[in-house]
Amino acid sequence: MRKSCVHRTLAQAVLAIVLPAAALAADRSRVDPRAYQKAMDAAVEFLGKAQAPDGTYGDSTVEPGMTAVVTTGLLRAGRSVNEPLVAKGLKYIAGQAKPDGGIHGAGTHFQNYETCLSVLCLTEANRDGRYNRILKAAEQFIKKDQWGADESIDKTNLNYGGVGYDRNGKPRADLSNTQFLVEALHAVGDGPDDPAVQRALVFVSRCQNHESEYNTAGFAAKNPDGGFYYTCAAGGQSAAGKTPNGGLRSYGSMTYAGLKSMIYAGVGPDDPRVKAAFEWIKKCYDLQANPGMPQGNAGLYYYYHTFAKALDAMKLDTIEDANGVKHDWRAELAAELFRRQKPDGSWVNDNPQWLEGKPALVTGYALMALSYCR
Predict the structure, then answer these.
(1) What number is the average pLDDT over the span 304-327?
(2) What is the phi/psi pair of residue 110, to 5°?
(3) How far apart are CA 63 and CA 69, in angstroms?
């Protein structure tokens, strides 16, 4: 049986009925700093053992993306750029910069993805301007990769404004790649007025199950729940599957990705698109699973770090769900991650889909998510 977007456990449901919202909020009002530091220290110890001499984490097929995720997590956890674990990772990432501005492995099909993840990492480490040249070149690279940047297509094309994997291998934009484009541009200082950001907003808006003047792609009318799915292009696709009438199901990781992208693109809280997305989030609030996914643990840690980034961008401390329960999301997310940490200090997903069977990558996601809980 396909699960609904509300993956609330029986225990959560009972709590929502038995305990008043105020009691729950008071009980989860802060993150234990000792538990936080213990988790961070254990993760750093694990990553120190997992790191290869060249600064990577032993999987050339996903580099420098994995090293960028891990090193960003370490930097956001408060580790210095001069610590060997971080310094080796940064040296490797910077060494992957190409003459055309891309930061990626040779022959990869993930040039945009790897470059954007590298930009996010290097901006965290760029307090003294040491990576200014690399970042400027990378900014231009990812902008040129955007559908519509060269005016070869217009806004009527459903790829317009998005980015995806290698066009020769999979000629289609998607929301996962596009959210990292928007986040990378935000990190280097490109605001809502930047043409690339506004182009991206066109694509992001079309990946939402919310019909408006910004979205006439056709899918939203079949499932108007306000959430987001993977792509509106090339016939549309959702990792959560389709509704019986051919609509595309919304799911957690893409909904938070879409919401975050809209915020960075200057869409305000009173905009109907943001309101619709937030209503989906209230209805589907969950930290036990990636809500909306048939297999709730698919992409779980990608979901956690996107969840944290989006709610931090909204400047929210609490969320009141559809049952009227108020959630201190930072404390709840931290508690869930503490519970899931392995004895060796790592995190890993039992479901290996989307590379989440790789402990170093998943530990990087977890560190990034925790950094927004402090």
Answers:
(1) 97
(2) -120, 40
(3) 10
Q: Is the dihedral of CA 116, 118, 119, 124 positive or negative?
A: positive
Contact 68, 135 (CB under 8 A): no
Cβ-based neighbours of 304, under 8 Å, separated by 6 or more: 287, 333, 336, 337, 365, 366, 369
Rounded Cα–Cα distance for residues 145 and 127 (Å): 27
83 Cα distance to chain centroid: 26
- State both tokens at 121: 């990492």
For residue 228, report the phi and psi dihedrals to the nearest 5 degrees: -125, 160
- The answer to whether the beta carbons of residues 331 and 31 sit under 8 Å apart is yes
**Confidence band for 310, pLDDT divided at 50, 70 and 90:** very high
Helix (H, G, I), strand (E, B) or coil at 101: coil
Residue 24 has a pLDDT of 36
- The Cα–Cα gap between 312 and 298 comes to 23
Task: Return the number of other C-beta atoms located less than 10 Å from residue 207's C-beta.
Answer: 34
- Is 109 exposed, middle or buried, given 0-12, 13-18 or 19+ CB atoms closer than 10 A? middle
SS3 for 320? strand
Pair of tokens at residue 135: 């970042």
Residues composing the chain: 374
Q: How far apart are CA 224 and CA 235, in angstroms?
A: 18
β-strands 326-328, 173-174: how paired? unpaired
